[in-house]
Specification:
By secondary structure, this protein is mostly beta strands. The chain has one helix at residues 100-107, and strands at 14-17, 48-49, 56-57, 81-86, 91-95.
Length: 119
């Protein structure tokens, strides 16, 4: 992929983010494993609205023990926010309460959505 393929803007498109890890999965168990693991949900995370089946994936709080998609969503240990690296290299804290439509816009690189600066 080329930088010009990110037509939604490099400051409006996420590249990496904190993965949600259920409290009982810490220390090398389940989703708290290396990215080199053969298990997909140890490192893959999603957010927004799935274009395949319409699943809603909000950002999850640190105490997300039994929420749907707990092992495949973004979320972090910080109160109320999840940190992301954007394509422009900046690191921003995104509120966990951010609307799933905005999250979808932040995760797509060429969707044509307009994203404000507060999320």
């Amino acid at each position: 992929m080329k930088l010009l393929d990110v037509s939604d803007g490099t400051s409006n498109t996420t590249m990496f983010g904190e993965k949600s890890i259920r409290p009982n999965s810490l220390r090398g168990k389940n989703e708290d494993r290396s990215v080199h693991s053969q298990v997909r949900n140890t490192h893959r995370r999603m957010m927004g609205i799935s274009d395949v089946n319409g699943d809603l994936r909000p950002l999850l709080p640190a105490d997300n023990q039994n929420l749907p998609f707990a092992n495949s969503s973004f979320g972090g240990p910080h109160p109320g926010v999840t940190n992301f690296v954007f394509v422009d290299g900046s690191v921003k804290a995104v509120r966990n309460s951010t609307n799933v439509n905005v999250l979808t816009a932040l995760v797509t690189r060429a969707g044509g959505e307009i994203v404000g600066t507060t999320y």
